Automatic annotation (TrEMBL):
Protein's UniProt keywords contain Transmembrane helix: yes
Keywords attached to this entry: Cell membrane, Membrane, Transmembrane, Transmembrane helix
PANTHER family tied to this protein: ABC TRANSPORTER ATP-BINDING PROTEIN, HIGH-AFFINITY BRANCHED-CHAIN AMINO ACID TRANSPORT SYSTEM PERMEASE
Compartment(s): Cell membrane
GO cellular component: plasma membrane
Highest taxon, organism lineage: Bacteria
Chief localization: membrane
InterPro entries the UniProt entry points to: ABC_transp_permease, LivM-like
Identification of the protein by name: ABC transporter permease protein
Database matches in CDD domains: TM_PBP1_LivM_like
């Protein structure tokens, strides 16, 4: 890669600047959620908000490879499970520090992603989708077989993780703001990656792999690196979800969960980063609200998703951008 030609920094386009501003608006709204829940005397909003923030991290991590590298991983929920089980396993040995658990989840995810990614990336298209699904299911059934941690029944956590010796996560509000801080950190990291030389090469491979090879880049190395980074970031969401539920089970890493992450990215807008956040918000809120109306809520949710794909292929963020441009032209 050192012999490849240098690439000049990409200009900061209006669309990119707009997405960063949109992310800032979202973060401010998220920060206002707990005071609103207190005013309404309804702690449920804090609990569902924490879940949304954690899934937003996972969806953004998936968008890093799906939106900018066209790598449709159908086994990405496995890394949610690695993060969740890192909490369970370390807690059983008396290690309850959040950052140590995140580090353990990252190490487990990086190792699995490095091995499976090296194999999966030798394929393309539907074959890549199916082989990532197969590896994800292998991890799923492996954790089902771990009877020491409940197997298929799952494993209850006696308490939430500590943060540098404090009980910060013992409060729902503390967990919420910690999750929000990690979401912001992940967004900043992903944004830096996408706009770096590495990110531009990675996107260039998506656009024209042959041309990138011709100018001296090795696509496999860039794709594998991005795949591992995405897996590691997804595991952070798993650590947070385990703390939010205080329960861990193989359901964290089922193929259904991988499908939900893809739906969140598509619904919010592929290749935008903020789309993963918006998609997590809309998908989980619709799941809650439609579930109150009928047991057949997946039918209504599926109808909504089909309509979104038909009338706004770029997702909700694309629709908002298009409406904003339209108002500007008036």
């Amino acid at each position: 890669m050192s012999d490849a030609p240098a690439m000049r920094p990409a200009p900061r386009t209006p669309a990119l600047a707009g997405r960063v501003k949109a992310a800032l608006v979202l973060f401010v709204l998220f920060a206002l959620m707990p005071p609103l829940a207190s005013a309404l005397n309804d702690p449920f909003y804090v609990l569902i908000g924490t879940r949304i923030l954690a899934y937003a991290i996972a969806a953004m991590a998936l968008d890093l490879i799906l939106g900018f590298g066209a790598l449709v991983s159908f086994g990405h929920a496995a890394y949610l499970g690695f993060g969740a089980y890192a909490v369970a396993i370390l807690s059983s040995y008396g290690i309850d520090d959040l950052f140590l658990q995140i580090a353990a989840g990252i190490v487990m995810s990086a190792g699995f992603a490095l091995i499976t990614g090296a194999i999966s990336l030798r394929t393309q298209g539907v074959y890549f989708i199916m082989i990532t699904l197969a590896f994800g299911q292998m991890a799923f059934f492996f954790f089902i077989s771990l009877s020491a941690y409940g197997g298929d029944d799952g494993y209850s956590l006696s308490q939430r993780s500590g943060v540098l010796g404090t009980d910060l996560l013992g409060s729902d509000y503390g967990l919420y703001y910690t999750t929000l801080a990690l979401l912001i950190a992940v967004f900043v990291l992903c944004n830096r990656i996408v706009n770096s030389r590495f990110g531009r090469v990675f996107t260039g491979i998506r656009e024209n792999r042959t041309r990138m090879e011709a100018v001296g880049y090795a696509p496999f190395r860039f794709q594998l690196t991005a795949f591992v980074i995405s897996a590691c970031l997804t595991s952070v969401a798993g650590v947070l979800l385990a703390n939010q539920a205080q329960f861990v089970s193989p359901a964290f890493m089922s193929w259904h969960r991988s499908g939900e992450l893809i739906v969140m990215v598509v619904l919010g807008g592929v290749g935008t980063l903020t789309g993963g956040i918006v998609g997590a918000v809309v998908a989980l809120l619709l799941e809650e609200w439609l579930g109150m109306l009928t047991h057949h809520w997946p039918l209504l949710f599926g109808t909504f998703l089909v309509l979104m794909v038909l009338f706004s292929p770029r997702g909700i963020t694309g629709l908002i951008e298009r409406l904003g441009i339209g108002r500007g032209r008036r």
